[in-house]
């Protein structure tokens, strides 16, 4: 039996991770209220273990002047819906790493959002070529409920690892759990390995709890 052309996967279309279903449209899902954007005080900071030991920040204008890329990627929520084939445009996380190099001992980052939401990532996942500080989806500015002005997109991990309303990136010399990782979700969050819950963690997957 052959697959129809539409169902066939190609190297750029990895298909659906196990236990996920395709979601039409684009639901908004988050804990707590949608923050109001304040252009005059908004900034995006990089702090923690930078190579220079200094923190760095961009205001809204400065951030929007950074070079952009577009990545086609899927969003996999751990509640089992997946939004396929979005074209995300924004600043590659690797650009931030180039502009503000981490100290050589940095192994992880914490990405911080408004109201203290956070997600921890291995440096390798943050540095991946498809990890993006996204400002647009399918050519349109991301709306308030989806993270305006900037949200992280990490296509290779469950979507809780992609904070909306990002305000800071903290370089870390050791791993530390973020918001959901402290509340029972898997520290690594690889959807292809169905790393949903912290009870599935194996030694080495995360810091002790
Ligand atoms: N700041 C913040 N970012 C967040 C969340 C949140 O609660 N707060 N939820 C995450 C989860 S669980 C998912 S599935 C995605 C959903 O993104 P969407 O609302 O744009 O579909 O946002 C992620 N980013
Ligand atoms: Mo989610």
TrEMBL record:
<dbReference type="Pfam" id="PF00174">
    <property type="entry name" value="Oxidored_molyb"/>
</dbReference>
<feature type="compositionally biased region" description="Low complexity">
    <location>
        <begin position="1"/>
        <end position="10"/>
    </location>
</feature>
<protein>
    <submittedName>
        <fullName>Sulfite oxidase-like oxidoreductase</fullName>
    </submittedName>
</protein>
<dbReference type="InterPro" id="IPR000572">
    <property type="entry name" value="OxRdtase_Mopterin-bd_dom"/>
</dbReference>
<feature type="region of interest" description="Disordered">
    <location>
        <begin position="1"/>
        <end position="24"/>
    </location>
</feature>
<feature type="domain" description="Oxidoreductase molybdopterin-binding">
    <location>
        <begin position="32"/>
        <end position="180"/>
    </location>
</feature>
<dbReference type="InterPro" id="IPR036374">
    <property type="entry name" value="OxRdtase_Mopterin-bd_sf"/>
</dbReference>
